[in-house]
Every structure is written in C-alpha cells, then in structure tokens.
Amino acid sequence: MTMPCLPTVIRACLFDLDGVLTRTAVVHAAAWKQTFDAFLERHDGPSFRPFDRVADYDAYVDGRPRADGVRTFLASRGIELPEGAADDPPDKDTVHGLGNRKNALVLAKIREEGVEAYPGSVRFCEVARAAGLRTAVVSSSANCRDVLIAAGIEHLFEVRIDGVVAAERKLPGKPHPDTFLEAARELDTAPDAAAVFEDALAGMDAGRAGHFGHVVGVDRVGQADALRRHGADVVVRDLAELLEEDAS
C-alpha cells in the first residue's frame, strides 16, 4: 500500500494551488511581467528596467493577494500608486487597476490553454485522503475554484480558503498565516497537526509563522535553498517524492 511520507502527528494537509497543485504559476508570472512591463515603460520611459519573472516574481508577488503583490513590487522600485477601487478598469494606473489587468490576462490564458494539474500532486492527494488525512486548498487567488474545476481536482479537497473567502472573512493574505490557520480550523485540526505545502517564499513564511507541524517546500524553479531559509522542513521537486510503499 502506498502511504504519504509525513510525520506521524500530521492529520491534515493544506495545499497552495498555483505551482503546487496546478501548472498555473508560470501563467501568473507571465501575466505579471506583461502588466508591470507595460506600466514601467509608461512610467519610466523606454529605458525602464523590466520585471524579472523569476527574481521579482518570487520576492514580491508570488503567493500574495493580488493588490499586495502590486504594492510590494512597486515599492521595490520606489513607486507608489493610488489605491483606486476594486472595480477599476484594467487600463487605470492604480493598485487595483494593475491588479485587474493582470487578472484579465491570467483568465484569458486559462481560457485559451486550459489548466493542468501536476500528476504527482494529484496522486499524493489521493493517497493522503485514502490514508484518512484531511485536505484543504489555501490560495490567494480569487479564481481558485474555477482553476480547481478546470483541472478536474475540486473533489480532492474538503475545504477551500481562497482570495474570495479571505476577503469575505477579512483574513490577511500570505505571508501572514491567517488563511492557513482558517483552513486548519475548518478541518478541526490544530496547526501543529497540519502540514503546509507551498512553492512561494511568502507561503513558507506563513507556514512557519503559523507554527504548523510540517512545512513542505515545493521547488519547481530551482529555489530550494531559499525555501529552506524561509522555513521549509523538507524541499521536494514534486509531491510524488513524498509517497512511499508500506512494507507491512
């Protein structure tokens, strides 16, 4: 029998979405680059310094709520924009306008190309559930449910705490631990009996800040050392590495 290789105290698994369960992190990075590069060229002129879809994405936007990602990246360039309103049009140079532009690009990409789940992650979730572990998705994305449905994996999770739920319940996003803590609460599981699965540095920080029992870093882009520095107990390239055959 195949079993999840986790500490024996773990009773629940809390999964990030983009980059952990689905191959959508690269779509988000490309959309952020297109959004920020167009803005920076308008703001700084033709000599602007482009958004780096690896370094800037990992440091400033990955795993964060959309508006927080806009603020954090622009602050790194010494730029401050008006907040605007949540329904600002995508062509408006406000925090929410840029965020909405990025979201429109992501949704268009998903509609055109679909969504693919990582086979190793699907297998791990199936094995975890068969072993009696509780499961939840914890994502900053407001499109989380649509992505889960498009990838055909919504049925694998009992609880979904995403950008929509976080806004309704006024939960601060990653790197704060509140969304993960809310998922554990809904699964009736203490944080020290829950494992966090994340590919984002902000998610690592959230997992450690919440004092969860186990924090798994998923390294899809070659940032294993950074994931460890931010609190990962173990780093894997794919969740299939955490499956083992029970010899009993």
Automatic annotation (TrEMBL):
Its cofactor is Mg(2+). It holds the Pfam family Hydrolase. Its EC number is 5.4.2.6. InterPro entries: B-phosphoglucomutase_hydrolase, Beta-PGM-like, HAD-like_sf, HAD-SF_hydro_IA, HAD_sf, PGP-like_dom2. It is an enzyme of class 5 (isomerase). Transmembrane segments: none annotated. It catalyses: beta-D-glucose 1-phosphate = beta-D-glucose 6-phosphate. Keywords: Carbohydrate metabolism, Hydrolase, Isomerase, Magnesium, Metal-binding, Phosphoprotein. One of its GO terms (molecular function) is hydrolase activity. Belongs to the HAD-like hydrolase superfamily. CbbY/CbbZ/Gph/YieH family. This is Beta-phosphoglucomutase. It comes from Streptomyces coffeae.
